[in-house]
């Protein structure tokens, strides 16, 4: 039993959709929704090729006709009369649904879209929770049997996702520190307490900004990279070959990326904190005529070390969220380039959303604990 799949080829005569695999209730998955979305802009012009189509039932026929509606059903090969009969059996149902939909008002359509959106959100949350469980199980297997870990893969990912990201993280956090210092100097100088710029820079950089912007940069850089790498392997059927050889996908693809980010993000965050403080120091030196020695001495005295540890306490969870978002969406890539692009985008958006969400949750927790 082969999973349902499709490919879209564009030539001089227009787009051609080539269906393959078994289009049945057990093998459809998300391909039916993906086919309908892919044909939104080509409806009425796309040609459907059925020569590689495997098994077909009423669920598959409904998905195909719903995707290409209102275009006529594709012509099946003479040796496949079952396909034509299934299309003829399902077509009246679709026409009836279209007639009923035309009679529904805007209120019904609004609630229908809301319900579909809530269902999609719940389904995505369920899949994410299941993926987290699989990652935890894979990490547990790696801890029990360290020989399963591929050290070369981890080292390579630590270099590409960590060391190569160091310059942009240093530059970004340096400018964040300068912006915080400039804003603080302008506001506090009017109150005659410009010396508190040191506390503002120290607390903001150590507690929030260095962690937050480092995580966002890694989400845009590493989450997209992970999704694209694993998605390309899935499109080229390399992951299927790994399964045939008995190699677990999570052990080979997910665990090295998770561990690499867990080890590298604290170092990158520390470097970002250092760059942010240097940026604030230079602005205070130039704009407020505050000597570097005075800046560092006051920061040592006025900024408690707990702000540093509060910032670092969030790092590992954010690294885990970034790695899992990239790997999860990479493993869910379909067989076409459009699916790869949408999954890469979803990985970055979801990672950034989770970073901001959990950072806000941490802020509320620390506020309740008076830290």
Overview of this protein structure:
The chain folds into two domains: about 5-100, Transcription Regulator spoIIAA (2-Layer Sandwich); about 150-370, no CATH class. The model has no long low-confidence stretch (mean pLDDT about 85). It has a three-stranded mixed sheet with strand order 1-2-3. Strand 1 (about 5-10) and strand 2 (about 15-25) form a beta hairpin. It is elongated, with a radius of gyration of 27 Å. It is built from 13 helices and three strands, in the order ββαβαααααααααααα. The longest helix is centred in the middle third of the chain and has 39 residues, at about 105-145. By secondary structure, the chain is mainly α. The chain has helices spanning about 30-40, 60-70, 80-100, 105-145, 150-165, 165-190, 195-235, 240-245, 250-285, 290-300, 305-310, 315-330, 335-370, and strands at about 5-10, 15-25, 45-55. Helix 6 (about 165-190) runs antiparallel to helix 7 (about 195-235) and helix 7 packs parallel to helix 11. It starts with a strand and ends with a helix.
């Amino acid at each position: 039993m082969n999973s349902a799949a499709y490919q879209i080829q564009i030539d001089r005569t227009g787009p051609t959709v080539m269906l393959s695999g078994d289009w049945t209730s057990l093998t459809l998955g998300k391909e039916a929704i993906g086919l309908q979305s892919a044909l939104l802009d080509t409806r009425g012009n796309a040609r459907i090729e059925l020569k590689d189509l495997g098994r077909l039932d009423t669920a598959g026929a409904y998905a195909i006709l719903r995707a290409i509606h209102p275009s006529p059903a594709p012509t099946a090969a003479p040796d496949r009369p079952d396909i034509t009969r299934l299309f003829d059996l399902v077509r009246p149902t679709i026409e009836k649904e279209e007639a009923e939909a035309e009679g529904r008002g805007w209120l019904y359509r609004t609630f229908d879209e809301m319900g579909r959106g809530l269902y999609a959100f719940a389904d995505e949350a369920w899949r994410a929770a299941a993926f987290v469980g699989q990652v935890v199980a894979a990490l547990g297997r790696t801890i029990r049997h360290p020989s399963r870990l591929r050290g070369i893969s981890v080292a390579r990912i630590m270099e590409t996702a960590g060391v190569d990201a160091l310059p942009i993280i240093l530059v970004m956090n340096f400018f964040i520190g300068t912006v915080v210092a400039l804003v603080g100097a302008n506001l506090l100088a009017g109150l005659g307490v410009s010396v508190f710029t040191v506390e503002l820079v120290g607390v903001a950089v150590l507690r929030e900004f260095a962690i937050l912007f480092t995580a966002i940069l890694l989400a845009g850089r590493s989450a997209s990279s992970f999704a694209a790498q694993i998605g390309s392997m899935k499109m080229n059927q390399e992951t299927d070959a790994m399964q045939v050889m008995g190699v677990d996908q999570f052990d080979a693809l997910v665990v090295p990326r998770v561990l690499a980010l867990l080890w590298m993000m604290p170092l990158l965050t520390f470097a970002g904190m250092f760059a942010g403080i240097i940026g604030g120091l230079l602005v205070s030196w130039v704009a407020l005529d505050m000597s570097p020695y005075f800046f560092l001495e006051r920061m040592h005295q006025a900024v408690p070390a707990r702000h540093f540890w509060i910032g670092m306490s969030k790092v590992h969870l954010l690294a885990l969220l970034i790695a899992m978002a990239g790997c999860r969406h990479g493993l869910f890539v379909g067989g076409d380039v459009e699916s790869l692009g949408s999954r890469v985008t979803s990985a970055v958006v979801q990672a950034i959303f989770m970073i901001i969400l959990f950072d806000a949750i941490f802020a509320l927790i620390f506020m309740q604990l008076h830290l």
